[in-house]
């Protein structure tokens, strides 16, 4: 995994590269991709682009994908803004996305605005889609960098910075006529960096393998698990977030062998509706002082209506979260 210390220079290099390099440029307007397609060079996306069912979009190493800033009333929207779509320009994947960069030739997904900011574009939005791979990519200034409803996606060796939420995924339970209604998402999220987003990883009623990630300095949460999940979270560095791990009616979460420490408000926090106990034993909380660990956990001890979060036995030293 790319060390965090080189993250900010790498981001600056993205914009320097964009301004100076003579890269072939392709403009992709609003529409549906109906046959297997490959993107390379610099791709400017002016509105919603959907990869149709049965179609594969391949993005080559070193490609830079830039999204124009639009609003919810723009004619560049393919759909309305009701779930699961965004009012901003987005890449909607009903077929399959293969976006596999290489070290030193990462794929960039970002805003096309000079004054780029979080939520300039919507998401890489997977809807009822299988077999997707996103590797060695930098995903910047999105509403949700990767978003999935009833889809399977593998995300490896990526950097998520300055997004609303880095990765969010769920089982579709709102749009009853969607073909993927009721289907759980399954994400493998490993060897990534999530930094300076509003949230790191959020998921609901879905399955996940989350390992060897650096999740730091996000404004609200590092990981937010909601409701019925089948998730194993291990060997992650979770620090500097307002809340390291946030729980909402969470059950089925296995979380062990992580470094969860020095989060600004709580290392672990229950939402008002969290009435299922969760086992956080065998994690490193930055200290071997039990009282200090307990102070960093918001649960039944603070509010009798909440569940108990157990954290003993706790690890006596930090785990290695890089490989």
Could you list some keywords that capture this structure?
single chain, 323 residues, mainly beta, 18-stranded parallel β-sheet, 10-stranded parallel β-sheet, 2 helices, 42% strand
Nearest-integer average pLDDT: 93
Assign a percent range to the helix content: under 10%
Number of strands: 30
Q: For the record, give the distance between the C-alpha atoms at the N and C termini, rounded to a whole number.
A: 7 Å
Computed over alpha carbons, the radius of gyration is 20 Å
Global shape:
globular
How would you sum up the major sheet? 18 strands, parallel
- How does the helix and strand content classify structurally? mainly beta
Indicate the low-confidence ranges by residue numbers. 2-6, 8-21
Can you count the helices? 2
Instruction: Quote the beta fraction.
Output: 35-45%
How many discrete structural domains?
A: 2
Q: Layout of helices and strands, plus pairs?
A:
Layout: H1 7-20, E1 25-28, E2 31-33, E3 37-39, E4 42-45, E5 49-51, E6 56-59, E7 64-67, E8 91-93, E9 96-100, E10 107-111, E11 124-127, E12 132-135, E13 137-140, E14 144-149, E15 152-156, E16 159-161, E17 165-170, E18 186-190, E19 193-195, E20 199-204, E21 207-211, E22 214-216, E23 221-234, E24 237-239, E25 243-256, E26 259-261, E27 266-270, E28 278-279, H2 290-295, E29 297-298, E30 309-310
Parallel strand pairs: 1-4, 2-5, 3-6, 4-7, 5-8, 6-9, 7-10, 8-11, 9-12, 10-13, 11-14, 12-15, 13-16, 14-17, 15-18, 16-19, 17-20, 18-21, 19-22, 20-23, 21-23, 22-24, 23-25, 24-26, 25-27, 27-29, 28-30
